[in-house]
């Protein structure tokens, strides 16, 4: 069945490391519509793999292709929305609203004076609506809960209409109920909007029911666990 699926990310013979390899001759194909979980022990290379996919790190050897084009050849990766782990880096030293944060990702669309117009506001409001934050658009981001902040960052990633969403530990610092809301939103985006989703997580017991595939990084390799379901993917 896999040969009938559309590959959106292709990792081939990928190797990377400093004093020793974190990832060595790894191979992985991610298909349009996948909801893929990536697990592994601390220091196994999960976040490193994401940085290689995003072109933030250069591999020692091998390649990463997005929509059949090598990442190193791309001038931008607008088809990918990336949401970092929620931590102190996400804190902002001055008051800012969710609407203002989401509009930051529309900066390249704004004309020479970089002044947002009504169309940019509407796009940002629609993105916030998609993560169930229509009534929070004018709040102070810094006073919001961890789960709400994470959803604002998802809206920021969504505003450019990406084909792929990539998350690094999205449930870190988020309470159980907020995790449920977060993953239900991701499941909706995956199944109803056909957005491919890749999630690095250490909370497999909570999140595995949402994934159709699970990849484990162990001993420098990417190993696919047996639970694979392609039934909802387009072929």
Structure description:
With 235 residues, the chain is an alpha/beta fold. It is 26% helix and 26% strand. It has helices spanning 46-53, 98-103, 118-130, 146-158, 176-193, 204-207, and strands at residues 7-17, 21-31, 35-40, 61-66, 69-70, 80-83, 164-168, 196-200, 213-218, 221-224. The strands form two sheets. A six-stranded mixed beta sheet has the order 6-7-8-3-9-10, with helices on both faces. The longest helix has 18 residues, at 176-193. It is globular. The mean pLDDT is 88.
Describe the protein's topology.
Layout: E1 7-17, E2 21-31, E3 35-40, H1 46-53, E4 61-66, E5 69-70, E6 80-83, H2 98-103, H3 118-130, H4 146-158, E7 164-168, H5 176-193, E8 196-200, H6 204-207, E9 213-218, E10 221-224
Parallel strand pairs: 3-8, 3-9, 6-7, 7-8
Antiparallel strand pairs: 1-2, 1-4, 4-5, 9-10
List the main descriptive attributes of the protein structure presented here:
235 residues, alpha/beta
Give the uncertain stretches in residue-range form. Answer: none
Largest sheet: 6 strands, mixed
Radius of gyration: 18 Å
**Beta-strand level of the residues, as a percent range?**
25-35%
Concise synopsis of the structure shown:
This protein has about 240 residues and is an alpha/beta fold. It contains six helices and ten strands; from the N terminus they run βββαβββαααβαβαββ.
């Amino acid at each position: 069945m896999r040969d009938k699926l559309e590959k959106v990310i292709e990792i081939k013979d990928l190797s990377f490391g400093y004093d020793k390899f974190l990832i060595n001759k790894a191979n992985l194909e991610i298909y349009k519509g996948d909801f893929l979980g990536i697990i592994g022990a601390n220091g196994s290379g999960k976040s490193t793999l994401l940085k290689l996919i995003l072109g933030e790190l250069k591999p020692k050897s091998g390649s990463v292709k997005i929509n059949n084009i090598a990442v190193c050849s791309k001038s931008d990766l607008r088809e990918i929305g990336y949401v970092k782990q929620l931590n102190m880096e996400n804190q902002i030293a001055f008051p800012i609203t969710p609407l203002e944060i989401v509009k930051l990702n529309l900066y390249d669309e704004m004309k020479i004076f970089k002044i947002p117009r009504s169309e940019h506001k509407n796009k940002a409001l629609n993105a916030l609506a998609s993560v169930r934050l229509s009534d929070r658009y004018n709040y102070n981001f810094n006073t919001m809960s961890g789960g709400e902040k994470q959803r604002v960052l998802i809206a920021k990633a969504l505003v450019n209409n990406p084909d792929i969403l990539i998350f690094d530990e999205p449930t870190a610092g988020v309470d159980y109920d907020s995790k449920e809301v977060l993953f239900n939103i991701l499941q909706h985006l995956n199944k109803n909007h056909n957005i491919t989703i890749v999630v690095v997580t250490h909370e497999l017991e909570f999140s595995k029911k949402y994934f159709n595939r699970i990849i484990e990084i162990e001993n420098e390799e990417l190993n696919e666990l047996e639970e694979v379901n392609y039934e909802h993917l387009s072929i």
